[in-house]
Amino acid sequence: MNRHNQRPVVLCLSGHDPSGGAGLQADIEALLAQGCHAAPCITALTVQDTIDVQDFRVLDRDWVLAQAAAVSNDLPIAAVKLGMLGSLEMVETVLDIMSRLPGVPLVCDPVLRAGGGGALGKDEVGYALRERLFPIAGIATPNLPEARILAELPEGSADECAARLLPHIRHLLITGGHGAESEVHNRLYSRDGGQRTFICPRLPGNYHGSGCTLASALAGRLALGEALESAVQSALDYTWRTLRDAEAPGRGQYIPRRLPLDG
Q1: Cβ contacts of residue 83 below 8 Å, gap of 6+?
Q2: GO annotations under biological process (predicted)?
């Protein structure tokens, strides 16, 4: 039995998507692909498919705390990835969990809308994420529509949203791809004024779970000890490949192929 090459453990606090496209399944697959071990703790249950979300239910706070305690008391947590929280109470629950994991990097994927447009939490959840969780996170990975909600700038550019959000968080990766441009511009902003743009070719189609895939891959790269800017590049490259090879098992959006085919 090989006990010498232990994979880093990433605690995932996310919702469950029964279609398997997003949520915890996306986290698990993306982390496996990075060579990490995913420790998935369910924050919410959803009713959704590859088209859109119909409903959701946030789990009881005590259940989420118990899941996280069981994992963190047993496994060495190297990073934490946040996905869907869905309520103000769950934001506070995450704060309690992170208080027991000092120094562990936190990647926040501010899941506020499903890929099909359906809400996954009330607007005040975005405000609580910004005010309460961003200050303890190492990096957040909103797409531009999510960044506009968080910054309260309905028509804001990525630069304008970053200027509003960086007082709350050290690093911010605002992903593109929501316009008609032929290239996707993903922008990494740092509170110290640093900025870098990562450009990749735009792929046709719409994708379910791309944000979960990116944030989980980034958490995995950080858990492996990769420096932030390099980890962002690795996660973006990996995510682009999963979208290039995506499949459409249902009637809606494409699902990223996060694991290679056998053979």
Answers
A1: 12, 13, 14, 15, 23, 24, 27, 43, 109, 111, 212, 215
A2: thiamine biosynthetic process; thiamine diphosphate biosynthetic process
